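Lab meeting prep.
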Amino acid sequence: MGEMEEEATAMEVDDGAVDVDPPRKLTAAQKGKAPMTQELQRSGPWVEKYRPASLADVAAHKDIIDTIDRLTAENKLPHLLLYGPPGTGKTSTILAVARKLYGPQFQNMILELNASDDRGIDVVRQQIQDFASTQSISFGNHREKANVKLIILDEADAMTKDAQFSLRRIIEKYTKNTRFCLICNYVSKIIPALQSRCTRFRFPPLQAQHVRERLEFVIDQERLDVTEDGLSAIVRLSNGDMRKALNILQSTQMAEPHVTEAAVYSCTGNPTPKEIEQIASWLLNESFQSAYSNIVQLKTSKGLALVDVVRELQPFIFTISMPGNIRVPLINCLADIEYRLASGPNEKLQLGALVSAFTHTRVALVSAAR
C-alpha cells in the first residue's frame, strides 16, 4: 500500500454553506469527465466505456481504495498524491471517490485539469484559484460531504517548477473548502514542498490476474471471440497497464474476427515468443556477422522494432540456464540499450551493441564451462 507521509486531519467545513457565483465560468470538460453520449458508448474507446464508475469496479489496489474510502466516510479526506505507472487506476480511483462523495452534484463540485496541457503558472493562478476561492454549496443528503470541493490535477509531474510553487501556496490558502488530488507517473518530479502537503499512495502495475479478470468482463460484455492463448498474449503484453490491455483488445478485434495469439502479435507488431527464442538462439550460437544479418532480415520481414525485441529478450534471459555473475551484466546491458533506444539513436549501432553483448556472454559461458 502507498505510504502515508502525514496524518490526515479532519476537514474544516462551514456549518452554513454559502452560494457564491464563480468568478469565471468553467466548462463541463474542465470540471471533470463529461458523461458519455450514446454514440460514444457504442463506438468509443473501451478505456472510457469501461472506466470504473464506482470503487467496487476498480480492478485492484483494494488496500489503497479501502483507506481512501474510509477517510472519505469519516469526513477526513486529506490532500492526495497518487503516483505510479500509466494505466494502473489512479484517475479512475479518484473519479470513483468523487462520484461517491458528491452524488448527482459530481460535475459541479470537481475541477479536473490535465497538467501536461495546462501546466503554466497562469493556469494555477487563474482556473485553479478561481475554482478554489468559491465557497461550497450544501446539497440535501450530501450536505456534510459536499461542502468541500475537489480539484484533480492529472499528470502533475508535467507542471513547471514555478507552477508547483504557486500551487503550494494556493493549497495552503484554500484548504478550508477545497481538497487537491495530484496524479503523476514520476513522484520525483513533484517538489518536496507539495509532497509534504499530501498523503501519498503508490499504484504499482496491476497483477496479471486482475488484468485478466477485467478483460474477461469486457469480452463477455462485447461478446467477443477470444481464445485462451489470445487472452494470455494481451495480458503478457500489457505489463500491468489496464489501458494498454483494453486498447490491444479493441484494436485486435477490429482487425481480426477471432482474437488469437497470432492476431494479437500481428496487430501490435510485437515479436512472438517463438521469434524471441529464435533471436536468442542466433545471439548465443552464431557468429557476430551471422547473428546481425539474421536479426536484420527478421526485423525487416516482420516489421519489428528493435526496442520491442530488446524488451522481450530481458525476461527470456531468466529462462536460460547461466550463472548469476554472467546473467546480471547481460540484463544490465539490455536495459541500457532499451534506455538509449528510447531517445531515438541509430538502430544499427544499438543492434551491434546487442549482438556484441551476447558475444561476450557466450565467451564467458564457454570459459565458465571449462
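Slide two material, second protein:
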Amino acid sequence: MEILSFMIMVAWSLVPCIIANDSINVSQFMSDGKTLVSKGGKFELGFFSPGSSQKRYLGIWYKNIPMQTVVWVANRENPINDSSGILTVNSTGNLVLTQNGSLVWYTNSHKQAQNPVVELLDSGNLVIGNEGDTDTEGYLWQSFDYPSDTLLPGMKLGSDLRTGLQRKYIAWKSTDDPSPGDVYRVLKLYNYPEFYLMNGTKKLFRYGPWNGQCFSGMTDLLNNTYIFGLNFGLNFVSNKDEIYTTFSLVSDYVITRTVTNQSGSISRYVWAVGEDQDWKVYRSHPKEDCDTYGLCGPNGYCVSTQSQACQCLKGFGPKSPKKWNSADWSQGCVRNKPLRCKDKLTEGFVKFKGLKVPDTTHTWLDESIGLEECRVKCLNDCSCMAFTNSDIRGRGNGCVMWFGDLIDLKQFETGGQDLYIRMDASELEHGHKKNTIVAATVAAICGVLMLSTYFICRIRRNNAEKEKSEKDDIDLPTFDFPFISNATNRFSQNNKLGQGGFGTVYKGILPDGQEVAVKRLCKTSRQGLDEFKTEVMLIAKLQHRNLIKLLGCAIQQDEKLLIYEFMPNKSLDYFIFDPTKRALLGWTKRFEIIGGIARGLLYLHQDSRLKIIHRDLKASNILLDSDMNSKISDFGMARIFALDQDEADTNRVMGTYGYIPPEYAVHGSFSIKSDVFSFGVIILEIISGRKNRGFCDPDRSLNLLGHAWRLWIESRPMELVDELVEDSTTQYEIIRNIHIGLLCVQQRPQDRPNMSSILLMLNGEKLLPEPSQPGFYTGKDNSTMIDTSLRNTDSYSLNEMSNSLLEAR
C-alpha cells in the first residue's frame, strides 16, 4: 500500500520544471519527440531504441558523433513499449518518467527542492538543483551518482561513506538490451580498498590497490599519462567521507570514455576524428593472461614473458606438481617449510621486487607508520604473511599487512612494488640465516628460563592445571583475559553489541586497530564449558566465506571468551524485522543473503572435513559483513556426525522456538534436515520481513508458516512478500524462493530436500516438486497441526514445548 500511495502522490503532483538552457519544459519535449541538448552541444537527452530492439529507453548520448553512443540509461530495467513516455518533474523536485499514467522510473531524491531546475551539463551529467544555486555539491540529484556502464571524465567510481552510495558500473546485457548484465566494476571497501571487475560474485580482474602513484596492477596508467598527445589526469581520493577514482582531460580535443563490457573486460575508447570517424580501443583490461584474477592460485605469481606464465614464490612449491606441470595452476603453491610461529626469531622476510601486490581482502592498514615499524608488527603477528608500504612515493610511507594466502600476484618487467614475504630462516639469505640461528639459540635459552618462571607462578594458583588442560584441548590462538578486557574497554556497556542465552557480545579494538567481536560466556548459563569448547573446536576447523571466522579465545578461571571477526552490519534480524532498516534490503540483496546461507550450510553438511549439524540456525545467528554478505555464526549447539551417520537423538532439546522442526521438539531427533527446516523458516522470514515466532494472521490465527501455506494453496503467494521488495520483474524468482522455503519446512524430514538440491533449486537448475503441509502449521484453534503418530499426546503440549523443552538463546 505504501508503494501505491506513492504512485498516487506522484500522479497528482506533476508540474512543469524549469530548464536552465532550453525553453521547452520536460513534459512537452518528451511527448513531442524532442530532445534536451547540453549548453555546449556535446550531449543530448532523449528516448532511444538500442540496436534492433523496439523498446524505448530514456538516455544520454553524444550529440555530435555520427553513430549514436549512449553513455547513460535511466530506465534500463523497465523499458517503455511505445512512444508514450513522458518525463516531468514533481513538486518535490524529482524527475518522473511515466507511460500512460503508470510510473516507469523516478529519481527518488530525498532533498526538498524550492524551485527545481533540470540541466544537462556539457560533462554528460544530468542534474537537478535549486534555481540560482551554483554550488555543484548542492545538487539535489545527478546522473553521475547512478552510472550505467560508461565512465566519463569527471565521473566517480567508488563509494560515498556518508550516505552509503556505491557508484558501480554495470555492463549492458547486450547491444540490444541495456538492462544490467552480470559484469560490473566496483570498489570493495576492504581495510586496504581495491577496485575489481566482477562477474556476479566472481572476481575477473583487479586494479591493484592505490599506492600513491598508480594502481598496483596498472603500472602503465600513471597520473599525467598521455592519450593521443594530451595530458590525462588520474585521481584517487580516500578520506572519511569518500573513496573513489576519477579521470580528467586537460583539453576537450579528445573524446574518450571507459566502458564495462558483458564479455568481461574494461575498454577505453577514443573517438578518432578525420576520415576514420570511429571509436578506437586505446587500452583494455584484462589485457593479457597474467591479468586474469588468481590465475596462478595461492602463493603463485604470473610472469607474462615466461613460456610457463605461473611460477611459485621463492620458498614455495606447487601444491600439485602433476597439475602444475600440465598448466593447471589453480591449486597454487605451498611452503617448502612450514612457519614456526612461536619461534619468531627463526623467521624473517624475503624482499620481492616489481610486483602487483596481492589481493587485499584480508589486510590491515595503518597509514601513519613506516616500513620498519610495519616489519616489527608483521613479525609479531603469527598470521601476518607479508607487508609493504601503502604509499611508495619518496622513501615510502604507511603500512599494509597481508594475512593468509597471497592471491593474484604478478611480476612486472619495469615498475611494480616491493613486497616483503614471511619466510622460515632456512629460506633466508645465508648471512641473515646465520644471524637468525644465533639469535634463535639465545632466544630459546631465554625462553626456557621464562617458561620455567611462568609455570612456577602458574602452579601456585589453585586451578592452574585445569586452565592449562582446557587450553590444550583447543587448537586455536589464545589471548590473555586482561588483553581482551582492555580491548573492550573493560566490557563497557557502550561496547555492547548484543546479548543471548550464551552471554553478551562486545565490540573490541586490538592495539593494532583491528576491530573484533568478543563473546563473553555468561557465568550462570547452562550452556557452559562443553558448549564453549564445542564452538571453539568446530569453528577453528571450518573455513568458508559464509561462516563466521573465529580469531581466538581466552580462558581465565570461570571467564571464557571467544574472539571473532567483527561484522559491521550486525545480524540479519537487525535489518529484516525492522520496518525502516529492511527497506535497505532489496530483493537482489535478500536473494544473495539466502544464497550465502545455503552455501554455508552445504559446506557444513557435505563439503567440510566434518559433517556438522548447526541445530540453532536463526535470523539472529546470520551475521552480515560490510558488503552485506551473510555468515553463519554461533556453533555452541552444533554436533559432529560421522560421514555415514544421518541422524541422532538427544534427551536435551535445545534451540529457538519458531526455527526447530517438529521431530526435534517432540522426540529430540535431529539430522541435517533439522537445519533445512530452520533454513526454510529463514527464507520465508526474509521474503516477508516478518518473524515466524509471534506472527499471527488476524483472519485465521495462522503463524507465518501457516500463513505462507494458506496463500500458496490459494494461489496468492505474492501476498506474502514484503511490500518493500515486491517487483514485477523478479516475481518469478520470488515465487520460486517461496516454493523452496515451503519445501524446506515440510512436516516429514524425508520430504525436505538436502542442501545440495536446494542450491540447484536456488540457481534455477532443478524442477520443484509440490510442497506438502508445513510442520508446526498453526490453525484456528491455536493447536499445532502435526501427525499424532509423531508425538505422545499424553505428555506433550504447546506450552510444555515452549517453556520446558527449549532453552532460548
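Talking points for slide two:
The chain has a mean pLDDT of 80.
The domain at 476-565 is CATH 3.30.200.20 (Phosphorylase Kinase; domain 1).
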